[in-house]
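=== RUN LOG ===
request id: a7f3
mode: sequence -> structure
chains: 1
length: 378
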Amino acid sequence: MVFKAISTIKIKVEVKPVVDNTIFRLHYRYTYTIYMVCMLLCTLYDAIGDKINCISGIDSDAFNDVVNNYCFIMGTFTVDRLHGVKMGVDAPHPGVGPQQSEEPITFHTYYQWVPFVLFVQGVMFYVPHWLWKSREGGLFKQVIQDLSVRDYLGHNLDNYFNREKGFEALSKYINHHMDSHKNWAYSFFFCEFLNLAVVISTLFFTDWFLGDEFLTYGVKVFGMIGMDPENRTDPMSYVFPRMAKCTFRSFGASGTIQIRDVMCLIATNIINEKIYVFLWVWLVLLTTATSMYLVFRLLTLLVPAFRRFLLQLLVKPQMQADVATVMQQTSLSDWFLIYNLGRNMETNVFSEFIHYFAGDLSNSTDTLPMDEDKIMPL
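=== RESULT ===
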């Protein structure tokens, strides 16, 4: 019963008539979900203890709470000179030790902003899909009617035996609305390129957010895996230090300003470092896959012969003449609509429709050939 229920859910998800593709879904479905999960993980302080715990040297819970909150809000810092030195000899922890006069240090003030940044970036990955759905308005679902693959599942064969009526209605719609789907098609193309813009901007913004360390973060992390643990410098300890310094100033009993140089354990960075290693890998792979797919999209936009080849892949081999007839009298936007119809129809049904539509175009006297090379802007 369990496997039967799972298979039913899978069929409903996979055969739903859609225009978007796997790369598009990687952005608005999977990447969005990944960012939301990461946002929740970095806020689960109960799983790792206190988000920050500083050693103040004062035996007072109230005072220690103030120090912890202050250092978390105002940020901690590490000494640049003490990164890469031998731990336990030159420094107790990477970047932690005495600071010499005017010595360069690196402040770490980002970790309280990590959940907010992850949330906003996750939403940005969903924006292109939201723009497309608001622009699409359910047009494709209305056009395909009952001719999609899912309508031939199960035991109801009424749609199959009445498919001629569906062919007639669909053929008339496309024939009488030639070249009227420009905004619909080009909106989708725009959202595809917007996906690439979002993922690239996310890479560079994250790099800026983490102090220009993110773009090379994954390379450094994987590069040190095979090194000797005693002699290697962990790049994660530089970007996400587990131990850092904080300067806290307060008044003494006589009113004199007392400066305490405290050492803080930043437990939240234990999760942050793992999150951003995974995000680095995911964003690099997503950027690569999106870029490669947009090369494919450019070919469909600029090369009519490639569009014809793609349409031929969706029909039976003997339908090449019908495909040629359809391509001669349809524009880029019409091809995009017909191509997505083929992606969502069963091969035999779509082949029958192409044959029917080609015959309808041949007998039509009120439809002029369209210029397939013209791409109108949005």
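=== NOTES ===
Confidence is low (pLDDT under 50) at residues 1-14, 365-378.
The two ends are 49 Å apart (CA to CA).
=== END ===
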